[in-house]
Specification:
Blueprint: E1 2-5, H1 20-25, H2 36-45, E2 52-56, H3 66-75, E3 79-84, E4 104-109, H4 118-130, E5 135-141, H5 149-157, E6 164-169, H6 186-202, E7 206-209, H7 220-228, E8 242-244, E9 248-250, E10 260-262, H8 269-284, H9 298-301
Parallel strand pairs: 1-2, 1-8, 2-3, 3-4, 4-5, 5-6, 6-7
Antiparallel strand pairs: 8-9, 9-10
Helix pairs in contact: 6-7
One iron/sulfur cluster binds near residues 214, 215, 235 and 299.
């Protein structure tokens, strides 16, 4: 899997946004986009190697050719997973989606009601009503006081068939630039996630953990609660390479500034991933994880925990 970063444009303004340095430091212009020709060149260069592609930005609904991207992916039997805030009107091209036939689904990054204007919230709820069969939610933990019950209420109210929430953490951008939860608050973040998991189990919703969670965020008892709540636990650092305008590729948003290369610079996708592994590994190689105790940690030695998000090493 990889992600196509289609456009810099986004008007949502999340304080923890991981993507905000891509435009500022990438030397580009806000109007630069990943073009259809570039996407075609990418697919031709790695034939048959993509089965699913993430579609993101910026905001994919502000990209002028979203329908063409979807058609292109479908013509190559590639599933599109579109990450959106859904706060802009859905592009007209989405009207022709045939549920159950076209391989596409949406992950809506959702926030609490107070983070939306009335108009934005109307767009969001219109979208969820229309596309509830192929939409799931995603939520980033940033405020550990925030009431998360709205997530489960939203799933019920809009009858989302995919009763699943992808939960991420507000991670730092390498060398700063966004608001994030500091690593000395991991235990607090862990407790918040455990409460969320217990509620999810009661409300028949599954939770998934995005990269950056660590095993030591949780006590042994809390790990047991997560297991009993059916959470698919992962304490991973598992980059999904992003490919943006000009076919520039980077490891993940937080490490955008560290290293970028041409997405067509290798002969197969595995080599591209290996190339990033090597650069990132060479840079952070002397550190096992983000804490001094990672080097001697049994979870790290068993590879059950990858030592947290590397961007914490440099802020
Ligand atoms: S490897 Fe590091 S981050 Fe992971 S559980 Fe061990 S001490 Fe914590
Ligand atoms: S460094 Fe690892 S954990 Fe952090 S965002 Fe990138 S892939 Fe995820």
């Amino acid at each position: 899997m990889a992600n196509l970063y289609l456009t810099h444009r986004c008007d949502r303004g999340c304080p923890f946004c991981f993507a905000r340095k891509v435009l500022k430091e990438g030397g580009g212009n806000v109007d630069d986009i990943l073009t259809i020709d570039e996407i075609r060149a990418l697919l031709d260069h790695y034939p048959g190697q993509f089965h699913e592609l993430g579609i993101l930005g910026g905001e994919p609904f502000l990209y002028p050719h979203l329908g063409e991207v979807l058609e292109l992916l479908w013509s190559r039997n590639i599933t599109a997973k579109v990450f959106t805030s859904a706060t802009n009107p859905a592009p007209e091209a989405l009207n022709s989606i045939e549920f159950g036939k076209n391989p596409v689904y949406f992950v809506v990054n959702i926030g609490t009601r107070d983070t939306y204007t009335d108009e934005k919230y109307r767009n969001l709820t219109d979208f969820m009503s229309r596309f509830n069969r192929i939409t799931s939610l995603s939520y980033t933990i940033f405020d550990t006081e925030a009431d998360f019950s709205f997530l489960f209420d939203t799933i019920d109210e809009y009858h989302l068939l995919m009763r699943f929430i992808r939960v991420g953490l507000a991670l730092p951008i390498y060398r700063g630039g966004n608001r994030f939860i500091s690593s000395d608050r991991f235990a607090e973040m862990g407790k918040y996630f455990v409460r969320m998991a217990e509620t999810a189990a009661e409300r028949s919703v599954s939770l998934g953990m995005d990269c950056g969670f660590t095993a030591c965020m949780f006590t042994t008892r809390e790990i047991g609660v997560l297991q009993r709540s059916g959470v698919n636990m992962a304490f991973d650092c598992c980059p999904v390479v992003d490919i943006g305008p000009g076919l520039e590729a980077w490891n993940c948003f937080p490490l955008f500034r560290l290293h970028r290369e041409n997405a067509l610079g290798t002969d197969n996708l595995r080599e591209l991933y290996r190339s990033f592994d090597k650069h990132i590994g060479d840079y952070f190689g002397h550190r096992a994880g983000i804490f001094p105790q990672c080097a001697d940690c049994k979870h790290y030695r068993r590879r059950a925990c990858r030592g947290g998000c590397k961007s914490y090493n440099v802020v």
